[in-house]
Predict the structure.
Amino acid sequence: MVEWTEFERNTIQSIFANLNYEVTGAKALARCLVVYPWTQRYFANFGNLYNAAAIMGNPKVAAHGTVVLHGLDRAVKNMDNIKATYAELSVLHSEKLHVDPDNFKLLADCLTIVVAAQMGAAFTAEVQAAFQKFLAVVVSSLCRQYH
Ligand code: HNI
């Protein structure tokens, strides 16, 4: 079981409380699709992903980025039980969507970069450490049902 310091808990809660899920989710997923183009294969039904501009302007990418952030919100609300919280989502990504689990970390890194850019100087090294610890637990929990 993961232990969280008070600073880590407060930091995670306050970052997510101040995020605009639509904006941040869209940017993080779009960045992932541009930087790691092989991730596009899972979104073949999303229409035009031809280049960075098309990906950034694609409403399906934006909508799905928002869904992912709402998915993360469930972990924020269950910080002491993230593994169980994601059991079903892990099965879905593994058995139905067949998403290579290496990609979870890539999306998490893109989200970190987007949040860092939005927070500017407030994204200190300690804040980054807390945020990435949280995302590492998310990624590991999403990988749990892979075998
Ligand atoms: Ni992911 C669907 C959460 C990473 C590909 N994903 C979901 C849903 C949630 C979700 C929530 C909606 C489930 C439902 O309908 O019941 N995904 C997350 C989270 C992460 C993540 C929290 C990691 C931070 N997903 C990824 C990655 C990929 C991915 C890295 C592929 C590169 N996800 C998908 C696909 C779907 C999906 C594909 C189905 C989309 C659709 O609507 O067709």
User: Anything to note?
Assistant: The two ends are 21 Å apart (CA to CA). DSSP finds eight helices and no strands in the chain. Residues 6-146 form a domain with the Globin-like fold (CATH 1.10.490.10). Helices lie at 6-17, 21-35, 52-56, 59-77, 82-85, 87-96, 102-119, 125-143.
